[in-house]
Amino acid sequence: MSEFKKIYYMEWTHRLWGRFVGLSFVIPAVYFIARKKVSKSMAIRITGIGGLIGFQGVLGWWMVKSGLKDDLFAPGSHPRVSQYRLVAHLGTAFLCYSAMLWNGLQILREHKLLRNLEATEVILARLRNPRLRIFRTSVGVLAVLVFVTAMSGGFVAGLDAGLIYNDFPWMGGSWTPSKEELLSDFYSQKVDGRDIWWRNAFENPSLAQLDHRVLATTTFTAVIALFLYSRYSKKVKRLIPIGSRKAMHGVLGFACLQVALGISTLIYLVPLPLASAHQAGSLALLSYVLVLGSRTWLPNSKLSSLLAKRMAATGPLTARKAIRNPSLYPKSNVWKAIPELQERLPETREKGGKGFIQQLLMVK
After folding, report:
1. Residues ≥6 apart with Cβ < 8 Å to 77
2. Which of 83, 95, 106 has the alpha carbon at shortest distance from 49?
3. Residue 151 to residue 351: CA distance in whole angstroms
4. pTM for this prediction
5. In which band, very low, low, confident or very high, does the pLDDT at 306 lie, cut at 50, 70 and 90?
6. Which residue in 335, 336, 113, 131 sits closest to 240, CA to CA?
């Protein structure tokens, strides 16, 4: 009875908290949209997020319903929800959170870019450099990889796969379990066995844990590779904005923390505090990858058009003049925008602002 009460109050608290989160978003959203305090595009996005929140509640009940089976009260049975519905519920929560965070980051970035057009022109000139295309694309791939890895963790949780093979990096004394165990006929529901691959991937605890290990290792390797590329590639290091550098350090830090939490959760047989911290760590890592993206990806077409109009209205910007004639604009904000300019400012002024600056910003 004590164990039932514990589970009951956890579920009860989760439901109440979900309703509170939904109302705390929907009520202000209705007010701001009704009073036309937000733009039409933002109103559409807010409505979409509100819809996601409602859909999340429906998915939550759909998930819980999968555990209400006729054999629930049979001797030795354990209440269990469908791992497919659990991952659907988890994935929608991640998408809803990511949409909120991304819109907030976009609003902050828009205000920052419009506040200082001089520094904005310099930063955008660097981000549009073709040499940063690989880095920008890699950040997007990393965001997808982190999300997929987190969803594979949902299958591990739904199948209680963390309670087996509690060693790392081995799995029962070898790198992987046997092929017979990973691709067991037990999980196939077709006579010809054509569903053996995907059913084992999503219903076999051994293969689900192996998949999560492979995805987690791939994600961590990708983070390390991207960090080294941004740090030791001279061309990329010279062009990447300082905000992106800081965000890259944050991604690396959260990735290392997440790996430590994951291994600890496995070794100590999935204690609830460690498992919860591991799940929260995946969301924190995804958050910082989105922060990195907001500082690295180019602005959307609407913001780009607005910036172009503002820049055209102000005429030739001081930033462009300062780059070409630094001696005439010694106090321009453009020098504060780029650390490399501050380091080589004396040399740049002596040479009339040409050479190094033009190569750095690709300004001709």
Report:
1. 71
2. 95
3. 55
4. 0.85
5. confident
6. 131
